[in-house]
């Protein structure tokens, strides 16, 4: 079982973390006018993209590894506690409607389970074993990737997730906001976005959370681009599950093909509203079943399928 550190040891450890540092110049921020506080906070937020930019080579290398494994049927799994866990679940939950992935392809795990999305689950983040149990339930393989997310880079749940994933042969990524973190050190790809001390001491849902959100955006979006889920910068695998998305689907086909509205509607009807298929039907001059077949033969890559249709 995991042995919890002594409170004195934990306090000493927190004092070494930049994300926990106290900023004396902000000690009387509560006495400032609201607009002044907002300006300070906005200025703090503006520093985050630069911190992310310093880690782009590491982010890109991780994405290439993730995409290669997902192309072979692997899954992308985020694991974290608190804000980090919630951000992972948010990113995972947005992949099915955006990229038409199955819910099992991109998964978010949070220490304490789904209930921890809205209510703190005492002690869950302190357990390496809990992370191992959650991942074991997924039946990890060497085609999968586990991204441990933790602002401190020391959260036992995130570190334990990476440790367990490596025993399964899965690719591992450690995303933290402190340098020299155990999480990054224990992963195949360590990504340490050092954003510095927070506006509110230790409130890592602020700059650290923003940095994590930006990196997770990159991981999922660029991975899906690599997997052929887009055509240029168009979301051609979008799932038309409501009126807004149906209108967006029509617009995407129009942008990709330049076809008239009536032709677009005919193509969408013939392809069961699959945007990628409809584009192929119009640009490749094929019917719905042929579009589906060509895409299947091309691994879902629209550009490849268009080449086959032209050939």
UniProtKB/TrEMBL annotation:
InterPro entries: Etherase_MurQ (IPR005488), Glucokinase_regulatory_CS (IPR005486), MURQ/GCKR (IPR040190), SIS_dom (IPR001347), SIS_dom_sf (IPR046348). Keywords: Carbohydrate metabolism, Lyase. It catalyses: N-acetyl-D-muramate 6-phosphate + H2O = N-acetyl-D-glucosamine 6-phosphate + (R)-lactate. Residues 66-229 form the SIS domain. Its EC number is 4.2.1.126. It comes from the Bacteria. It is an enzyme of class 4 (lyase). Gene3D superfamilies: 1.10.8.1080, Glucose-6-phosphate isomerase like protein, domain 1 (3.40.50.10490). PROSITE patterns: GCKR (PS01272), SIS (PS51464). CDD domains: SIS_Etherase. Pathway: Amino-sugar metabolism; N-acetylmuramate degradation. The active site is at 94 (proton donor), 125. Pfam families: GKRP_SIS_N. GO terms for molecular function: lyase activity. Coiled coil: none annotated. Specifically catalyzes the cleavage of the D-lactyl ether substituent of MurNAc 6-phosphate, producing GlcNAc 6-phosphate and D-lactate. Belongs to the GCKR-like family. MurNAc-6-P etherase subfamily. A lyase-type mechanism (elimination/hydration) is suggested for the cleavage of the lactyl ether bond of MurNAc 6-phosphate, with the formation of an alpha,beta-unsaturated aldehyde intermediate with (E)-stereochemistry, followed by the syn addition of water to give product. Homodimer. This is N-acetylmuramic acid 6-phosphate etherase.
């Amino acid at each position: 079982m995991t042995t919890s550190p002594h409170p004195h040891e934990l306090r000493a450890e927190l004092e070494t973390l930049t994300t926990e540092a106290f900023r004396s110049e902000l000690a009387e921020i509560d006495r400032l006018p609201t607009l002044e506080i907002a300006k300070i906070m906005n200025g703090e937020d503006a520093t985050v993209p630069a911190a992310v930019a310093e880690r782009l080579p590491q982010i890109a290398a991780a994405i290439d590894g993730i995409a290669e494994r997902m192309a072979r049927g692997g899954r992308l799994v985020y694991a974290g506690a608190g804000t980090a866990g919630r951000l992972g679940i948010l990113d995972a939950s947005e992949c099915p409607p955006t990229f038409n992935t199955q819910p099992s392809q991109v998964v978010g795990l949070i220490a304490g389970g789904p209930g921890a999305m809205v209510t703190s689950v005492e002690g869950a983040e302190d357990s390496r074993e809990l992370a191992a149990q959650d991942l074991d339930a997924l039946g990890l393989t060497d085609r999968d990737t586990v991204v441990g997310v933790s602002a401190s880079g020391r959260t036992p749940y995130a570190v334990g997730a990476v440790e367990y994933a490596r025993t399964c042969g899965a690719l591992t990524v450690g995303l933290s906001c402190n340098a020299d973190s155990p999480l990054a050190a224990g992963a195949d790809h360590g990504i340490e976005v050092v954003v510095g001390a927070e506006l509110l001491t230790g409130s890592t849902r602020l700059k650290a959370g923003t940095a994590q959100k930006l990196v997770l955006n990159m991981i999922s979006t660029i991975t899906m681009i690599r997997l052929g889920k887009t055509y240029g910068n168009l979301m051609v695998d979008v799932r038309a599950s409501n009126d807004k998305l149906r209108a967006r689907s029509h617009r995407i086909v129009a942008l990709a093909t330049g076809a008239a509205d009536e032709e677009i509607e005919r193509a969408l009807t013939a392809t069961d509203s699959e945007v990628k298929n409809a584009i192929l039907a119009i640009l490749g001059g094929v019917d719905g079943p042929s579009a589906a077949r060509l895409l299947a033969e091309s691994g879902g890559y629209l550009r490849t399928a268009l080449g086959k249709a032209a050939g």
